[in-house]
Inverse folding.
């Protein structure tokens, strides 16, 4: 065995028991070398007459976190996990998995192919493959329902959520929970087995069972997962495999499982979910700002403005245990802000998701004030005042005096130039944009806007803080709308043009929702308030007259149809109900608007709706990428996945365009250029280049 293999798996014999220790930090992922080494040591233990039994053990943190995801879609070296499992089954000597920490995915499959399992009280066991659009492909779907109740096995495999050791013991997945030294306990356990002459127990020899009629049981299971996992193919395949565990012999069931795994691993949905998994881990990697960049310590925070955003941002700090001072101009606004925070927490308490004492503890971390001087000990100040350059610059000038040296000065602006805000101070290196999304205490996305002069340490600190606040920080350069809203503008533009041409708000929303978006655009505008976009358009008409949009959006606002808050918008709403109801009045308005602009109504297909809206996003994304506003295509995807209700199984707008094929996307855009308002379509040079070269945005 190679030296490298010996380093990642240790072998020793203790009191007649072979101890095979996995030592492949950080999580004992089951890569090629690890599997080969375990295989060899199992054979060694089996062949050594002095050895009476064997223990497989990992570290205190991880028995094993499972397969190395990077090996998927690549030819796997021998032995694969199934072959290793066969060797485990073939052992005539009892084999115990000693589970410290977590046993997940392939890690649990490795443990399931052992004859017994013991665990520490804090251990976690799970089969999370479904979260990557896959199924447990090394016998997991066949072994788990043979050792625990079918319904429980399905729950574990289709939710992907791990269970704690205690529950695993209750279900029969774990034979014993032990305290103290895990290895010592495993050796004692084996000695006891040997003394009692208990036979080794292979799960493959057991019979799965269901209560009641199996056909009805699985029909119900299929119906449930189809409902809970719309658009995701893996959960249904898991149910099919579990059914095979009941109806077919083990080896046949496992063959079926392999086929279904091979099918899933090549689906766009699984590729999208795996893309998202890696994309999420990339966003804080910034070229030129290494991981070890010194960061400033954030012990205290301050927020200026206790409106919609300021209140939510203050809650983010309090939730993370960071004391925060909230400053307003007037007592009334301050009281209103604090009482919104309190009622927000109270709502969570009422739902049973937060303890009352915890709410009080968090409230006690929030200090209201009317004086900017009260923020002089804050390590970061987040400004969330009115969206006006003069107001923001005036505030930043004052912060120059009141903020302590070295404090980070962050702005929550959504549309203003962060560099101009920075210019108002003598310390532009301390200024950065922290663009939270509404509601700030709920939404995961945080666009971290790097100004021209933002210090590297300020960027590194803000990215770290984003994680502390349990956000997903994505770096954006300075531009109008940053990554998310700049792209959204093109999507909004197309959604409205579609109405001009003959579609209805309900049709556009239904097509996009069916495709997978959490919410269609018109329901979203009504929820956010149509007056907000109206205000922005009025300002833009002066600043950027080249931006053409359908005036129908203005017509809606001129009638006071601001959306949910006025009971009418692109839809109508019944009192106390947020459900959008198609409104014949809007249809009539649309018809007369189309006449007025001289557009003949045509039938618009759902396919065209999706293509126009999605390619509008991807095309603008390509500009953003080319301009260096986003560091990588996967960051753009994460913005949409974490902040705009984009379905994970589509992987984000850039990944979606990649999946369609950039040549096809370009051809569609060229077709759109010949249609209604075609001049608004300008294929991004990067898209055209990649389409020609057969490349993808996501490499
Ligand atoms: P808001 O009108 O609800 O709140 C602004 C608050 O700031 C008000 O309570 C006001 O009294 C206070 N304020 C104004 N000037 C002040 C000053 N000099 N000192 C202290 N307090 C002052 O607005 P909002 O929706 O919370 O937006 C705040 C900022 O966040 C804006 O820049 C906005 O563009 C941005 N933003 C808003 C959203 C959103 O969905 N609402 C999302 C992202 C970013």
């Amino acid at each position: 065995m190679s030296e490298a293999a010996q380093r990642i798996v240790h072998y020793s014999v203790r009191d007649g028991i072979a101890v095979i220790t996995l030592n492949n930090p950080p999580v004992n992922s089951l890569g090629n070398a690890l599997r080969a080494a375990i295989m060899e040591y199992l054979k060694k233990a089996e062949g050594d007459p002095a050895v009476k039994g064997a223990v497989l053990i990992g570290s205190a943190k991880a028995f094993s976190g499972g397969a190395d995801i990077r090996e998927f879609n690549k030819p796997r070296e021998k032995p694969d996990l199934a072959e290793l499992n066969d060797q485990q089954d073939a052992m005539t000597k009892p084999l115990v998995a000693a589970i410290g920490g977590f046993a997940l995915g392939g890690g649990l499959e490795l443990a399931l192919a052992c004859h017994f399992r013991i665990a520490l009280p804090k251990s976690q066991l799970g089969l999370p493959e479904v979260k990557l659009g896959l199924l447990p492909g090394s016998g997991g779907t066949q072994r788990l329902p043979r050792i625990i109740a079918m319904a429980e096995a399905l729950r574990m495999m289709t939710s992907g959520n791990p269970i704690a050791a205690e529950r695993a013991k209750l279900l029969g997945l774990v034979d014993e929970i032990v305290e103290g030294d895990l290895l010592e306990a495993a050796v004692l356990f084996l000695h006891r087995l040997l003394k009692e002459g208990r036979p080794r127990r292979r799960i493959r020899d057991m019979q799965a069972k269901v209560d009641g009629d199996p056909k009805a049981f699985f029909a119900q299971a299929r119906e449930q997962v189809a409902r809970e996992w719309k658009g995701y193919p893996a959960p249904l395949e898991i149910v099919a495999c579990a059914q095979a565990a009941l109806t077919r012999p083990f080896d046949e069931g496992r063959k079926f499982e392999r086929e279904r795994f091979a099918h899933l691993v090549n689906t766009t949905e699984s590729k999208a979910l795996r893309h998202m998994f890696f994309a999420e881990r990339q966003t804080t990697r910034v070229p030129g700002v290494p991981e070890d960049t010194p960061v400033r310590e954030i012990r205290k925070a301050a927020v200026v403005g206790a409106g919609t955003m300021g209140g939510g941002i203050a809650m983010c700090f309090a939730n993370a245990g960071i004391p925060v001072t909230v400053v307003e101009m007037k007592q009334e606004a301050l009281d209103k802000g604090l009482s919104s925070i309190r009622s927000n927490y109270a709502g969570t308490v009422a739902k049973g998701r937060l303890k009352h004492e915890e709410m009080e503890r968090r409230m006690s971390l929030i200090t209201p004030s009317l004086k900017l001087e009260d923020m002089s000990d804050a390590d970061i100040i987040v400004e969330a005042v009115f969206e006006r350059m003069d107001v923001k610059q005036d505030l930043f000038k004052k912060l120059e005096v009141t903020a302590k040296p070295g404090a980070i000065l962050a702005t929550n602006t959504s549309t203003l130039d962060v560099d101009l805000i920075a210019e108002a101070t003598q310390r532009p290196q301390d200024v950065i944009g922290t663009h939270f999304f509404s509601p700030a205490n709920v939404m995961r996305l945080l666009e971290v806007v790097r100004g021209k002069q933002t210090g590297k340490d300020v960027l590194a600190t803000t990215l770290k803080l984003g994680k502390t606040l349990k956000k997903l920080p994505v770096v954006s350069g300075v531009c109008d709308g940053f990554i998310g809203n700049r792209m959204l503008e093109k999507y909004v533009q197309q959604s409205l043009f579609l109405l001009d041409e003959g579609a209805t708000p309900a049709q556009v929303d239904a097509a996009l929702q069916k495709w997978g978006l959490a919410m269609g655009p018109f329901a979203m505008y009504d929820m956010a308030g149509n007056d907000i976009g109206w205000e922005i358009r009025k300002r833009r008409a002066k600043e950027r007259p080249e931006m053409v949009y359908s005036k129908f959006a203005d017509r809606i606002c001129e009638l006071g149809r601001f959306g949910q808050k006025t009971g009418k918008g692109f839809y109508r709403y019944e009192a106390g109900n947020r459900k959008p109801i198609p409104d014949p009045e809007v249809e009539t308005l649309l018809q007369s608007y189309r006449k007025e602009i001289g557009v003949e109504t045509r039938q618009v297909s759902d396919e065209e709706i999706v293509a126009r809206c999605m390619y509008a996003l991807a095309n603008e994304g390509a500009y953003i990428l080319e301009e260096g506003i986003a560091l990588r295509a996967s960051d753009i995807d994460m913005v949409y996945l974490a902040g705009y209700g984009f379905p994970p199984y589509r992987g984000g707008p850039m990944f979606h365009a990649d999946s369609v094929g950039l040549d096809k996307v370009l051809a569609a855009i060229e077709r759109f250029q010949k249609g209604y308002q075609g001049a608004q379509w300008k294929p991004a040079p990067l898209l055209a280049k990649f389409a020609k070269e057969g490349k993808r945005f996501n490499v």
User: Anything to note?
Assistant: The chain has three domains: 3-257, 301-476, 484-693. The first strand starts at residue 9 and ends at 14. Residues 304-310, 327-329, 333, 384-387, 391, 395, 412-414, 436, 438 surround nicotinamide-adenine-dinucleotide (CB under 6 Å).
